[in-house]
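seq:
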Amino acid sequence: MTPPAADPGRSPREGGDGGGAHRRDDAHEAGTRALLDAIVAGDPDETVRFGDVFNGLGNRSFGMLLFVSTLPAFIPIPGVGGAVSGPLVILVGLQLLIGLRRPWLPGFIARRGPHRSALGKFRNLLAPWLTRLERFVSPRLPALLDHRAASAFTGLLLVLVGVLLSLPIPFTNFLFGALLLLFAFALLERDGKLMLIAWAAGAAAVVVFGILSGSLVQAMTEWIALAREKLG
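struct:
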């Protein structure tokens, strides 16, 4: 299964629009909705492997992988969604942080993934919101997506939010999941302005839930102590 790939370098204004309106061309039509439609098409009982979801997507690969990695956060069972989604998000964030241009997954993760039926239900749930979102997003401010420093900052925020998602903080899974979807949509739609909003929301979440509550500092301290114990 390979989703339809669009030319990531094309701008919605190519072709001499002339006005200030954002003209939707093929590059923007093959956006989040079209990609999800292509992924969920097929046998609903078939597993969509994590290793397949970003094939042919070029510089939008991290966005689709982040989108699929975020889905378990919405499982309405305490302690389950964050335990699954959190480490996946951290893995995506670390790769952006160190400057990888294409996602990498270990084999035992790449061979696993959600069923098409689960993706289809989530796609249907998001459809009204995606319709509204696509009225405002467009490929713009690419430096906020592709510049090395910008990509590293995005990765850092994803790592921190992924850590928070992994922690048993009551009533936050859906909140962190929605925040991560904002990052995913910015990467998928190649929208730097939307990424700016995601940065602001992500930094606020880290400050409020991580630093002020002490959860993030406590988790980091425990992990460092555990690493020293293993290495020592």
